[in-house]
Amino acid sequence: MYKGIVSKFDETAGEIATNKDVEKPEVYFSDADDIPDEENEQEPKISKKKRKEMNKLSVAELKAMVQKPEIVEWTDTSANDPRLLIHIKAHRNVVPVPLHWSLKREYLSSKRGVEKAPFALPKFIQETGIAEMRDAALDKQDQSSLKQKQRERVAPKMGRLDIDYQKLYEAFFRFQTKPELTRYGEIYYEGKEYETNLKHLRPGELSDELKEALNMPPGAPPPWLINQQRYGPPPSYPALKVPGLNAPPPPGAMWGYHPGGYGKPPVDEHNRPLYGGDIFGVLQPQQNDQQGEPIEKDLWGELQASEESEEESEEDEDEDEEDADEEEAEAGTHSPSGLDTPSGMASAAPSEFVGTESVAGEFDVRKHHRGTETEETVHPRSAYQVIPEKQTSVQGFFGGDRAYDLSTSSGNPPLLGVDDQSRKRKKPGDVDVSVDLDAIQAGDGLSKESLQNMYEVQRQQQNQPQWGFQEDLSDMIAQESRKRLRKEEERRGKH
């Protein structure tokens, strides 16, 4: 009774009961009824492996879905998430899985029958000659008798392989080379050490070994040039210039099919090159003419070697000094104006082309202020200005009786050593005093006495040392003098 009640609330039991009712075979009581065939009634069951293969993407569909179809392999379609796998493989700096993961045989099993090459010392160590010295020592040891070998065991001789220190230093610090190392992401695979390194090779450049292997005489074209003239240049290198195909043959070469000939130039019926380029070398001089002047590829700013001897250079220096003295004498008679240097001296520098050139004539280091500061005069300026003289009394030891009246000269330049009161600069005797504006507004202003007091306080603070106390050196001086007197008395007593 309880079992029947529980079965009504149990869903799984009800499903099992309904399934059992469905699975009961149907009973046919007469032959007239259409009895179905048992083979047609049973549906074929699909295994999990076949169902997985049916839902699996093909290689073409996976390549159409991803951004980089070139990295798709035939094993990627059987992954749990092929798109995620291709996304990870296409990411930057991802190290690929080694190729031997899917192989049935053991790793490196193909190298069992290959003879391993003996170990060889690096080239920079072989050049020291240590290998020959060691071989000679081993040969001598083999030739020695049993008594000598036993004696060497008890008292071995040291320093047999004595190499010069300079050779070792040059080997390890000058001629040492780095071993070949794999780069980031490079994985070793079987047969990698037997592959040829092609990184230093360039298309179109034939090495001497290849020319010797092809039996090519010097200046002869490669044997595949005739086929290239017939079928065209290699499509993988569209910018490659091949002599005799889309570039002129080297100087001294001839067209023709004789040994060393460059075949027939590939042109159409209008004598135009089929594959572009200047195969006859006609456009080269025109291009050179259109370019204009040749480009100078020398180093800019390089110091040129002086070809003059020391005697000639000394003579030139003497001449330069004489010319400079003459120019100083001429410039001292008048005061310069305008853009000349108002120093009364003209500087001269030796030049590479002509003897001496005036630096002031070529370079102007003054700033040109335009606008309100200086106005350019329209009337012609004079080359010099005469300053009138005035008589003065001789004052001092080096005083003169003549002076020049600079008040009439234009500009009135300030004299050196005279303080300009108009400049807003702090003089050595000035003291900064801070004033409270509220106190000024509250009272009638600042009195002379209060201002004097503020000035005295600020000056005392500035004159005080950094640590806040006046250093007294009198005690130290008296102590040092006592020490000196005591030492002198001791010396006199000893004598």
Automatic annotation (TrEMBL):
Domain of life according to the entry: Eukaryota
Record-linked InterPro entries: DUF382, PSP_pro-rich, U2_snRNP_Complex_Component
Record-annotated PSP proline-rich domain positions: 198-251
Pfam family for this entry, one: PSP
Annotated segments matching region Disordered: 28-53, 265-285, 303-438, 456-495
Compositionally biased intervals (Acidic residues): 31-41, 305-330
Record field: compositional bias (Basic and acidic residues): 480-495
One GO CC annotation: nucleus
Biased composition (Polar residues): 456-467
The protein's name in its UniProt record: PSP proline-rich domain-containing protein
Organism per entry: Penicillium frequentans
